[in-house]
Design brief:
Blueprint lengths: L3 H15 L6 H4 L8 E7 L19 E8 L2 H9 L7 H11 L7
Antiparallel strand pairs: 1-2
């Protein structure tokens, strides 16, 4: 059985959603699914100017900082990224980049 058309449609939909105009975290929190999915964090190019993330196709003033995959989007965003910085790949990566800027974590 060939799932290529189904996979292509899913990839196209994920790309469309990931490159649409980003939603503010405060607005997204109530809508986060408990299902699996892909998510992205965007920021202005002035944030980590040496990081070569691509611009958002629908919001060119923003650039991709991070893309992640989760089996439970709500838990990953709320518990992992926003509460427990030590287990968040996003926050650990950002902390590593900030160290080179002279910031220190506690």
């Amino acid at each position: 059985m060939n799932d290529l058309p189904t996979n292509h449609a899913r990839i196209s939909e994920a790309h469309r959603l990931l490159t649409s105009v980003p939603v503010k975290l405060s607005d997204a929190v109530n809508e986060l699914s408990r299902g699996s999915g892909v998510y992205a964090w965007w920021a202005a190019p002035s944030v980590f100017p040496d990081l070569p993330g691509p611009p958002n196709e629908n919001a060119p003033s923003l650039r991709l900082l991070y893309i992640g995959l989760a089996t439970n989007l709500r838990r990953r965003i709320l518990s992992n990224h926003l509460r427990r910085s030590g287990t968040s790949t996003l926050r650990r990566t950002l902390a590593g980049l900030l160290v080179s800027e002279g910031y220190r974590t506690i």
